[in-house]
Amino acid sequence: MKNVTDSFLSLGHWPSAGSFGFNTDILATNPINLSVVIGVLIFFGKGVLSDLLDNRKQRILKTIRNSEELRGGAVEQLEKARARLRKVEIEADQYRVNQYSAIERDKLNLLNSIYTTLEQQENNNNETLRFEQQRAINQVQQWVLQQALQGALGTLNSCLNNELHLRTINVNIGILGAMKEITD
User: Fold this and answer.
1) Is the dihedral of CA 129, 135, 138, 143 positive or negative?
2) pLDDT of 88 strictly over 80
3) 0.85 cut: is pTM over it?
């Protein structure tokens, strides 16, 4: 028997098929075995592979649909959040403006209150000053009057006799009594 490798390598000659045996030539048997295995796999595995691919395709499509639905929900929630944000920003601006207005109003009220208080204090001070001036004037008038009376009494005492003196006192008492009646 010839060497199988030699017969395989010779291009025009194939070994005879009369005997059955194992071909130990790896280079010659692998392509044949692979083609048989691939053929069997294609024939029998075609349905299984098709089912697996269809299942995989359905899962991918389902995942894509779920993702689209989730994306749509997320976009809707994002728009709602943006709308709420705009609303809150507008309310914050209004609140800020209202607070600034309230602060300005309170500031004006405080200034007016301070002005009124200062005006009242000035009026009270002026009134106190007038009162003190009037009191000082009255004290000076009383002092001048006392000095004048003492001077007049001294002059009268030195110039008058007893009878004239008594008459002058009675006249003065009469004048003071008349003045008292007028003031009452």
Assistant:
1) negative
2) yes
3) no
